[in-house]
Design a protein that fits this description.
The protein is α/β, with parallel strands linked by helices and 360 residues long. The protein folds into two domains: 2-157, Ribokinase (UDP-N-acetylmuramoyl-L-alanine:D-glutamate ligase), CATH 3.40.1190.20; 175-342, 3-Layer(aba) Sandwich (Rossmann fold), CATH 3.40.50. Helices cover 48% and strands 15% of the residues. It is built from 13 helices and twelve strands. The protein has helices spanning 14-30, 43-50, 60-69, 87-102, 119-128, 140-146, 197-215, 227-239, 252-260, 270-278, 290-298, 315-327, 329-359; strands at residues 2-6, 35-40, 53-56, 72-78, 106-112, 134-137, 155-157, 186-190, 218-221, 245-246, 264-267, 283-285. The protein has a seven-stranded parallel sheet, with helices on both faces. The protein is globular and about 60 Å long. The two termini are 13 Å apart.
């Protein structure tokens, strides 16, 4: 058995890297004699770090060869089928699915968030996915969008595979990064570039200052997306009256350990919120993309977003929301622990659907 995985891999984005790490680990456990090939922007790095085969994602001849050698082609996870970023990106990912189907390979959309898609985007998905055999999506909104585009293909709502993450047996030492026990109470902030960014910076800085000045929180910014996220983090830090810090952690285990010991998380990055939920850590979300709103709905999260792009940040509202989450941390942690357990079961379903495809 040979699996080929197509996604946004090899770009040093911690969320996508975490997603791939979990998918690969699950496949190795379930199919110990299988070969796993990953389309990657840095194939040598991906191959070395995960112990897999890896194919350059930009070399068309190599991609066709990888598809030809595969038994099963997985498109995902992540938010690949959308054209908010660019139509070119959608053409790339949908084109791989089309090529795999035409080559007679077992092909599956795997743990994706679908959309946003305009008319041309929907037509692209519809045409490229004719003959698709299976699909799992991370939320109900994605199912409603994808199902009419792939008639005859069962679309099952699951959850992000990162909900399946378990920490290593040996604890990660965070003291060297400056966020050990002396940092309590710790608040982590994970930001990224977004629409209406100036307003977002104002909103997040107001929350950081409130948490720091009223509750004595030690606030640390943790970039998930490398230099780009660090740049936005620096802009927020400069806006703050308080003195938050910028920390660098490498690898899923270190990042998860930091999130797990935080008192709360402020997150624009989806996987920062997923990891927070996984460990029952309350969060304030910024829904820059529909997938954030969908996650909050799936978790039945009782707090409103910190700020929604396209609205003016109201400092009084932000202060009230910050006070509310701080006073309700125990209640919210208990809610998330229950909700995350349900999401973990749904995340397992991705691999149950895959198993049916493999056996078909």
């Amino acid at each position: 058995m040979r699996f080929l995985i197509s996604g946004y891999y090899g770009f040093e984005n911690l969320g996508d890297d975490a997603l791939l790490e979990i998918i690969v680990a699950q496949l190795k456990t379930r199919y110990p004699y299988a070969t796993i090939d990953v389309l990657s922007a840095k194939p040598e790095v991906t191959a070395h770090e995960l112990g897999v085969a890896s194919t350059p994602r930009w070399e068309q001849s190599a991609i066709r060869e990888a598809i030809g050698a595969a038994d099963v082609v997985l498109s995902g996870g992540g938010g690949l089928f959308q054209n908010a970023t660019s139509l070119k990106s959608l053409f790339y990912y949908a084109g791989i699915v089309r090529t795999a189907i035409r080559a007679g390979k077992k092909t599956m959309i795997f743990a994706q968030s679908i959309g946003p898609l305009d008319f041309l985007g929907k037509q692209t998905v519809r045409e490229c996915c004719r003959g698709l055999q299976a699909a799992t999506v991370r939320d109900e909104r994605s199912s409603a969008l994808l199902s009419p585009l792939v008639p005859g293909t069962p679309v099952e709502v699951t959850a992000d595979p990162v909900f399946l993450y378990d920490p290593p047996v040996t604890p990660v030492d965070l003291a060297t990064a400056g966020i050990g026990d002396e940092s309590d109470p710790l608040v982590l902030v994970c930001v990224r570039k977004m629409a209406h960014q100036a307003d977002g910076i104002t909103a997040i800085a107001a929350a950081v200052d409130r948490l720091s000045e009223r509750y004595g929180a030690r606030v640390a910014f943790l970039p998930f997306g490398g230099a780009s996220d660090a740049e936005v983090s620096t802009l927020v830090i400069r806006k703050c009256r308080s003195k938050p810090t910028l920390v660098a952690l490498e690898g899923l285990d270190a990042v998860a350990a930091a999130v797990a010991r935080a008192s709360l998380v402020i997150g624009v990055r989806l996987h920062a919120l997923i990891i927070a939920a996984r460990f029952g850590i309350p969060f304030l979300a910024v829904p820059y993309d529909p997938k954030i709103t969908a996650l909050m709905a799936d978790l039945q999260y009782p707090l409103q977003p910190l700020w929604t792009p396209g609205t003016r940040p109201a400092i009084a509202t932000i202060d009230g929301l910050t006070d509310d989450i701080w006073s309700r941390r125990t209640e919210l942690a208990a809610h998330l622990a229950t909700a995350a357990a349900a999401q973990r079961q749904r995340a397992e379903q991705n691999f149950t659907v895959l198993e049916r495809l493999v056996r078909a």
